[in-house]
Amino acid sequence: xxxxxxxxxxxxxxxxxxxxxxxxxxxxxxxxxxxxxxxxxxxxxxxxxxxxxxxxxxxxx
Length: 61
Fold this sequence. Notes:
By secondary structure, this protein is an alpha+beta fold. The chain is 46% helix and 20% strand. The protein has 2 helices and 2 strands; from the N terminus they run H-H-E-E.
């Protein structure tokens, strides 16, 4: 799946998915304010994932 497809999916997602993404961004924002690397490690359905914030307009570069 292409990044554009994923972005389209997120823009049309159910509210629960949008709430999850808001929680992810809030958690990454807290890590930035605590001067930690903006990285979250998750395990889901047997997969180990990392979500790393690369930039956020006006907040993090």
